[in-house]
Amino acid sequence: MLVVVHENYDAMSRKGAEVIASRIRRKPNLVLGLATGSTPVGVYKELISLHRNEGLDFSKVVTFNLDEYVGLPPEHDQSYHYFMKDNLFKDININPSNVHVPQGMFGDVKISSFETDPKIVQFCEWYEDEMKKYGGIDIQVLGIGGNGHIAFNEPGSSIGSRTRIKTLTEKTVADNARFFKTANDVPRYAITMGVGTIMEAKELLLLANGAGKADAIKAAVEGPVTAMCPASALQLHRKAIILTDKPAATKLSAEFVTYG
Ligand code: GLP
Q1: Which of ligand 1's atoms lies nearest the C-alpha of 213?
Q2: Which of 25, 113, 252, 256 yields a CA-CA distance of 20 to 30 A from 184?
């Protein structure tokens, strides 16, 4: 694992965008895994400016997002469909038919049959197959939850898990309530790539900033590999890069990290 600590959020974001841009230049039809949340917004801003100022070309890039809330239509301003359009896709030359964000609307499905509903199960299988059709994800961007989750794989998620529906923990609902009017408005379920799905990406790029992520980063990088900290699975990956700012790295052993 390569852990690089940056002076601040902007420096971390510049580095994250540089890594992605270098992969696109090397392979114009890169299969790029994308994440939502506040953390990658700076990377997306940098990518937009590389597109505008240096002609970084997304026309052949194929994207797959990690997750989507269940029950929010794509036009809802807190859906991840909307987030991606608003924070990246509308400002780059991506081909809309190359964009994949998990479906979040499945009509009238009872909560009790969420895990077995054929519409949901078939969608999740299709999403996995679609990734395979493009040869798998070349590089996957990740954030990290305060409880160590990646995508919406909450603590306890199997390290071999695949794309499926997951119930959000109270901690995640509380953390994400800042984006909604009230905590009651935060969806309780999401479709998410599994930890096993994420681990199949050829390269992983996890970003973390702020003191609120320091415990999760310590557990992910130096703790045991355990389903209780899904991000710790990165220790088993062949090519995982972790970029942080200083506050997110305060609990790491100094000799482990490099400085960017
Ligand atoms: C959500 C997303 C994750 C993201 C996490 C952290 O739960 N599903 O993919 O990494 O939040 O969000 P933030 O970057 O806002 O701290």
Answers
A1: 16
A2: 113
pLDDT band at 260 (very low <50, low <70, confident <90, very high): confident
User: Locate tokens 């973390």: which residue?
Assistant: 208
Rg (CA), the chain: 17
Quick one: which atom of ligand 1 is closest to the CA of 66? 9
Residue the block writes with tokens 């694992």? 1
CA of 35 to the centre of ligand 1 (A): 8
Q: How confident is the model over 29-70, as pLDDT tens digits?
A: 999 999 999 999 999 999 999 999 999 999 999 999 999 999
- Class of 2-259 per CATH? alpha beta
Residues whose beta carbon lies within 6 Å of some atom of ligand 1? 35-39, 66-67, 143-145, 151-152, 172, 176
Taking alpha carbons only, the member of 106, 60, 102, 59 closest to residue 81 is 102
Measure 151 CA to ligand 1 centroid, in angstroms.
Answer: 7
Q: What share of the chain is helix, strand, coil (3-state, %, to 5)?
A: 40, 20, 40
pLDDT in tens, 113-129: 888 889 999 999 999 99
Q: Are 144 and 216 in contact (CB under 8 A)?
A: yes
Burial class (CB in 10 A: 0-12, 13-18, 19+), 138: buried
Nearest residue (by CA) to ligand 1, atom 12, is 37
